[in-house]
Every structure is written in structure tokens, then in C-alpha cells.
Design a protein that fits this description.
Structural class: mainly alpha
Radius of gyration: 22 Å
Low-confidence stretches: none
Mean pLDDT: 88
Strand content: under 5%
Number of helices: 12
Largest sheet: none
Helix content: 55-70%
Shape: globular
Distance between the termini: 29 Å
């Protein structure tokens, strides 16, 4: 903004960088609802998962056939609650055998292929060349099918993977990476946007290769390596924020503070992700969204300045 960049350019770059943070908003909401959804699971079992799936299907039908676009946003609940319910199934050891899980995964990918190639859903699960329809904004039932596929395939090999992870070195490496995995996730798009911006200033260096061509595919490992090298020091520097915990013996804030603070922060994060910011320090929307995040975190008991 200070150097004269166009507001629309700043909005585009900020939205691209903030895309990963949508996960924090819906993840926090799902965690808030976990006591209720877990009780629902304990009472009705697999039927409760089916309820969320049916609700998501109904919402998608209304979205495409009745053109009730606003209703599609409720799938942030039904789609991700359904996927979260798969975790309850695993946690409570209510899983079938590996062969059944494998075919459960095949059912998920078969459903996904049918939805994409026979229905109105785009191929890309995150983002879409066609801005009019997206599988993730708002979420569609394709993401449930994808989740079922990943769940079935991963859990079908759970036992051999546990044996593999019993190695001290492998397990230590897994634990170390997971101490800053969220930091990597949240910052990888920021690094990508910066690199693309620099490439653009260098007359499109590295960006002129035709997508899908053999040269384009051969350049992917180089791009990934470059981005990894740039991302790792940033992730290492910021990862202590991820490992912070409440001081031992510190009182836990009241439930109403936790809920109110989380909802406010989630709303601010969602607005920032959806609209980005234009760099103008006097933009009211920017001020309100950032204030919601900071105020929500403060109300919930996080010490912003420490």
C-alpha cells in the first residue's frame, strides 16, 4: 500500500496467503461442538454419520437445483461434521476389518468419480478454474466422498503402519515434524505468493512454461524444492507459537469466555480469508476483522502480547 501497489493486487495476494486459515475457523467450531457431536455419536453410532451425509446431500440439491446458494454455506457444518465423525469411529474402535475398510475407501473414490464426471462438481477439490462452482467454497459432498476414500485407505493399512512407526527413529522423526506441521500448513501459501511475486517482477521467470507440458512436469520438483527450502526456516522460526501451552496451574477461563472468544476469532478469521485486506490502514472491514481475531483470542484467555 505504501509503495503504491494497487488495492486489488494486495487483496488478491492477501486472500491467497490467508486461504489456509479457513481451516482454523471451521476446525475451532467443530472442536467447540465436539461434546455434543460425540454424544450424538454415542447414542446413534453410524446412523449419526449418515444424518450428516444426508443433510449435506439435501443442501447440495438445494444449491444446484433450487439455486439456494446461501444454503450451501451450512455445509461447512454438515460436511466437516461428517468427516469428523469418522474420527469418532476410529477412536471408539468401531471399525470393520482391513479388507472392509479398503472397500469402504473404494466406495468413496467411486462416489467421487461419479459426482465429478456425471454431476455438476468440478475436478479440483480445492479451488477451481471455474469460479462459479467450487468443491470447497462452500463445501460439497465431494469432500465427504474424498474423506471416506482417504479414511478407508489409511485405516486399511493401520496395523502395518503402526509396526513401521514402532521404530524409534521413524517415530522420533514423525513427532518432530508434527510439532510444527500446522505452522507449515498455515505459511506455505505465503511463501508461494512471495515467490510468485518475485518471479513476476523478474519478467515472469519460471512462469512461462506451458502447464501440463513435459517441461512443466519436469520443473515441478525444482519448484517444490525451492519452496521447501524457503518455507522451512520460516516454519522453524514460528513453530514455538504452535507449541505454547497454558502455564502450569493457570486457571482455565470460564466456558462462556472460551465459547465467545472462539466464535469471535473464528468470525474474524473467516472474514479475512473470504475478503482479504487491501493494505489501507483505515479500511473499516480490515480493522473490524483483525479486531475480532485479537479480541476473541484475548477473551478466550490467550495472552496476545506475551
Amino acid at each position: 500500500h505504501l509503495f503504491g501497489a494497487k488495492p486489488e493486487t494486495i487483496v488478491f495476494a492477501s486472500r491467497a496467503s490467508l486461504v489456509p486459515t479457513w481451516f482454523l475457523a471451521i476446525y475451532t467450531v467443530i472442536v467447540l461442538l465436539a461434546p455434543l457431536t460425540y454424544a450424538f455419536w454415542r447414542r446413534w453410532g453410524v446412523t449419526s454419520f449418515a444424518v450428516y451425509v444426508v443433510l449435506a446431500v439435501v443442501v447440495d440439491f438445494a444449491y444446484f437445483q433450487l439455486e439456494l446458494r446461501w444454503l450451501g454455506w451450512t455445509n461447512y457444518f454438515w460436511v466437516w461434521l461428517a468427516v469428523h465423525h469418522l474420527g469418532f469411529m476410529w477412536r471408539d474402535n468401531r471399525l470393520p476389518g482391513p479388507v472392509s475398510l479398503f472397500f469402504f475407501g473404494l466406495l468413496g473414490i467411486a462416489g467421487l468419480v461419479a459426482l465429478v464426471f456425471m454431476g455438476p462438481y468440478p475436478l479440483a477439490m480445492a479451488g477451481s478454474p471455474d469460479e462459479s462452482v467450487s468443491n470447497s467454497l462452500p463445501p460439497k459432498i465431494t469432500l465427504i466422498a474424498l474423506g471416506v476414500f482417504q479414511f478407508g485407505m489409511a485405516l486399511s493399512i493401520e496395523k502395518p503402519m503402526r509396526r513401521f512407526l514402532s521404530s524409534l527413529r521413524v517415530w522420533a522423526a514423525t513427532v518432530i515434524v508434527n510439532t510444527f506441521i500446522m505452522t507449515i500448513y498455515l505459511w506455505h501459501m505465503t511463501i508461494l505468493v512471495i515467490v510468485l511475486g518475485i518471479s513476476f517482477l523478474l519478467d515472469g521467470f519460471g512462469l512461462s512454461v506451458e502447464p501440463g507440458s513435459s517441461e512443466w512436469w519436469w520443473s515441478r520438483p525444482l519448484w517444490l524444492l525451492t519452496l521447501l527450502v524457503l518455507l522451512l526456516p520460516v516454519a522453524m522460526a514460528l513453530s514455538p507459537l504452535e507449541r505454547r501451552a497454558r502455564p502450569k496451574g493457570a486457571p482455565v477461563p470460564a466456558a462462556w469466555r472460551l465459547i465467545l472468544g472462539a466464535v469471535a476469532a473464528c468470525l474474524g478469521i473467516a472474514l479475512l480469508t473470504l475478503f482479504g485486506f487491501d493494505g489501507d490502514p483505515f479500511n473499516r472491514l480490515d480493522i473490524v476483522t483483525l479486531a475480532l481475531v485479537l479480541a476473541g483470542a484475548s477473551v478466550a484467555g490467550l495472552r496476545i502480547t506475551s
